[in-house]
Amino acid sequence: DKPISSNFIRNIVIADLESGKHKEIITRFPPEPNGYLHIGHAKSITLNFELADEFNGRTHLRFDDTNPTKEEVEYVESIKEDVKWLGFQWEALYFASDYFEEMYNRAVLLIKKEKAYVCDLSVDEIRQYRGTLTEPGKESPYRNRTIEENLDLFERMRKGEFKDGEKVLRAKIDMTSPNVNMRDPVIYRISHTSHHNTGDKWCIYPMYSFAHPLEDAIEGITHSICTLEFEDQRPLYDWFVRECEMEHQPQQIEFARLNLTNTVMSKRKLKKFVDENIVDGWDDPRMPTISGLRRKGYTPDAIKSFCRAIGVAKNNSVVDEQMLEHFVREDLKLKVPRVMAVIRPLKVVITNYLEGQVEWLDAENNSENPELGERKIPFSREIYIESDDFMEEPPKKYFRLFPGNEVRLKNAYFIKCNEVIKDDQGNVVELRCTYDPETKSGTGFTGRKVKGTIHWVEASNAMPAEIRLYEPLILDDEEEEGDTFLDNVNPNSLEILQGYVEPNMKEAMPQDKFQFFRHGYFNVDTKYTTKDRLVFNRIVSLKSSFKI
Ligand code: ATP
Ligand code: MG
Ligand code: MG
């Protein structure tokens, strides 16, 4: 049922199966639990899980938890929940930290092969010695320590005899390599920090570039898919697999990361929004996190369709966020009921309608999908309409309500505006209208036509509802290095309105989705909705100029 589009990674997999290089495809999704997953991760998750699944392989969910200072159990739990919610089932759960002992042993093996040494240079000195793209590196004065000395120092690093930063273990490769990554990279650092999984067992931790290839090799990963920034690290990845004498050789393949217009896509930056209280948590509906998209009302199908459609490429590009919105509209169009909600209410009194009478009118739930059935909506002497649907002095071609004009109330009657009531400041607070009983919707009335149809909600039965409208969190498209993105925060990213919805919404539960006639798609908020107060998040408006 899901369309499979060909891509260069899939072609590699097919070739490897045909040549007999691999019998089974094993991919992995390896998040570092230092934040919540975002839509970029969804691209990687969809790619890895669907690729393995297509060829009856499997996918590991692996927590790349080798940096204890930034990692937390809360993130581990949220990541599991998000992957599951997207609809993917991991074969088994892995933690890189479970391999610390094995990684340590492989590092000892490197020392014994004279391929690693303990270095006392500081972080800054190491950086200076490393050189640049145009300038070769300089060898560390500690590079030629004996195997015995290195074994002894490394063991004492593990035992906690040294302070953070006093010593590191480095691979001994080539300080003149044109690839800066090969100039004796650090593979272990000292950090006297408790780890969410191993507690205080370790005070030395492996660096990502050393740990990651070993994790892949230990788990028998066949295709290790990562983003393009790691292309220059591939020689180092292969070096570690080879020199550590791993039996299995995974293949690293790079693809372009997802970037979206008007969207910050880095856990570090997203954490800033949370820590600075610019949003109300990682799952704020303005966040591009999976949990934020879920709370806003996005569906797993919409997200996965989007991820498949953007494809897998070798060059970085920026995808228009409207493309993501396009897929949620497509997904919800036939699935959710279309109901009436007034988000900026203006009261209308229908003066010729009997006081105290309520009649129940028929309304179809989705004009494009009759399977969703019908519902009854009340009508009476007092209703709310959208204040935007009235103008006292309308411009030309304004077909909605104005003094003397007649419009159709959707699913009900024609009404005509006769009188405008204002408060002391001159604001319009109420309209007096008359209705024509002959024009009832569904009766086939053809006596005369009106040009405008507006939505409404009957006042005495209406449910008050809070309506939350969103705009992008930041106004600038540029991904910047520092924290200047905080200067581009959109002051209008959230607008909170108090409106009314149909009484049928009494039964609505958090995460229920609706189309509000003329306003877009809305989701019942999971955080602020209570038993007697519905809060809706706008998922997306109805119209878009985006064409796929
Ligand atoms: P961030 O910079 O947002 O923190 P990361 O790459 O550091 O992202 P990881 O937890 O290391 O986050 O990522 C797990 C996996 O998700 C990696 O394999 C990474 O390549 C992939 N990934 C992360 N961001 C994107 C993105 N924008 N597009 C596609 N894949 C991504
Ligand atoms: Mg990372
Ligand atoms: Mg990162």
UniProtKB/TrEMBL annotation:
Localization annotation: Cytoplasm
PROSITE patterns membership: AA_TRNA_LIGASE_I
InterPro entries documented for this protein: aa-tRNA-synth_I_CS (IPR001412), Gln-tRNA-synth (IPR004514), Gln/Glu-tRNA_Ligase (IPR050132), Gln_tRNA_ligase_bac (IPR022861), Glu/Gln-tRNA-synth (IPR000924), Glu/Gln-tRNA-synth_Ib_cat-dom (IPR020058), Glu/Gln-tRNA-synth_Ib_codon-bd (IPR020059), Glu_tRNA_lig_a-bdl (IPR020061)
CDD domains per UniProt: GlnRS_core
GO annotation, cellular component aspect: cytosol
GO annotation, biological process: glutaminyl-tRNA aminoacylation; glutamyl-tRNA aminoacylation
Key words of the record: Aminoacyl-tRNA synthetase, ATP-binding, Cytoplasm, Ligase, Nucleotide-binding, Protein biosynthesis
Chain ranges for the short sequence motif 'HIGH' region as given in the UniProt record: 31-41
Substrates-to-products reaction catalysed: tRNA(Gln) + L-glutamine + ATP = L-glutaminyl-tRNA(Gln) + AMP + diphosphate
The enzyme's E.C. designation: 6.1.1.18
The keyword Nucleotide-binding appears for this protein: yes
Pfam family, one: tRNA-synt_1c_C
Record: residues binding L-glutamine: 64, 208
Family: Belongs to the class-I aminoacyl-tRNA synthetase family.
Assembly with partners or alone: Monomer.
Protein's name according to its UniProt entry: Glutamine--tRNA ligase
Species the sequence originates in: Proteiniborus ethanoligenes
Lineage: Bacteria, Bacillati, Bacillota, Clostridia, Eubacteriales
